[in-house]
Amino acid sequence: MKRLFLTVTVACCIFAVGNARSNISTAKDLALRESPDFEGAKEAINAALQDPETKDKAETWYVAGLVYEKIAEAETNKQMLGRQPDVATQGEAALKSYEYYLLAYEKDFIPNAKGKVRPKYARKIEESIRYYYNQGIIVNYGIHVYNERNYERAIDAFETHTAIPDLEMIKNSKNPIIKDSIYNQIKYYTAACASIIEDNQKAAAIYEEIKDKGYEGNRIHQFLYDIYSREKDTVNFVRTLKEGHEKYPEEQFFLGNLINYLIFNGKVDEGLAYLDEAIKNNPNNAEYYYVKGSVMEVLDKLDDAVTFFDKALSINPNLSAAWGRKGAIIMKTAMKMEENAANIKDPQLYNKEKANADAKFKEALPLFEKAVELNPEDIDNLKLLRGLYYRFKDTEKYEEINERINAL
Predict the structure, then answer these.
(1) Which pLDDT belongs to residue 340?
(2) Quick one: average pLDDT of 340-356?
(3) Is-contact 281 336, C-beta < 8 A?
(4) What's the CA gap between 82 and 97, in Å, rounded?
(5) Is 8's pLDDT higher than 80?
(6) 333, 301 in Cβ contact below 8 A?
(7) Staple 144 to which of 78, 87, 199, 331, CB 3.0 to 4.6 Å?
(8) Helix%, strand%, coil% for the chain, nearest 5
(9) Which of these, 135, 47, 144, lies nearest to 87 by C-alpha position?
(10) Measured between alpha carbons, how far apart are the two ends of the chain, in Å?
(11) Is the residue at 47 inside a domain?
(12) What is the domain range of residue 37?
């Protein structure tokens, strides 16, 4: 009786193992059929992934990856037949397949009972992962969810795609994947998604990684400045401005913000030194003279400011901002003259000073007209011009400018 009990017990164990292994075979068979049963395949492989007898085997995880690869492949085949694939189904399946393949690859290199490493699935796994990368299946899914404003999921997809070249199986192979401009573009959009969801740490780290890779370097430096400014990280935003100015000397953004920071934080000499060096190296750059004029205006050196605005306009007569700032300085001078006139008790002297002030206001009028002509949507210049027309009782032009302002 005792021997019979043991025999029955062993038979039951053999039967249980058989069922566990049959789930793997069933899943593979159902997924590879000409008319696949993917739901059945998923059910079978999920059972195998949870069964103590099979959940730690490389084969189990490999077949799990294969099942989901075939689901993604079925959607790809639709496109080849002129039908619309389900990008969400395709992408989700590819992501699952990728995750399962990575686990299978890891388990495939576990030594056997004799201490030997004999991988069975590594080559196939590498081929499949390369396929996902080269066909852009996962990144296309990322774009899909990005357009749906699911930025967290887009980040998952983009980061999965860009992680592939750094996988040991790829990086150490005879045919590593080159990180080209498309790779850096995807990194760029990953950072953009992180910035949208206010994960500034992730966004900054990615931008720092790719800022010198030849893709949108100018904009990336501007984004980094914006992130560090919001984070009140003075050291890094100043560093970013200096780097940006050095790499993109024609871009006023970096120099302007750097000089503003330095001047308004008590480092006027350093700020002007940057600007003077830029002017020396680029004497025909109108923007630099405009910035120098703006600095002089801030320092209340108005005559110097006008001189630099004039220099900027002699190089680039279409620089709307310079026309506007020069007009503003002249208008400011006229307002001071008008204030002084108000304090004069002698009617004759008052009338003379008031006439001088009016003449100064008229001097500003054509400057604002030119600024608005060059940039019809500059609301500040439009308002100042409207004020001058009101002052001089030019009702027709006043109404015209007023309508333009209201339309903006």
Answers:
(1) 92
(2) 91
(3) no
(4) 25
(5) no
(6) no
(7) 87
(8) 80, 0, 20
(9) 144
(10) 98
(11) yes
(12) 18-111+120-173
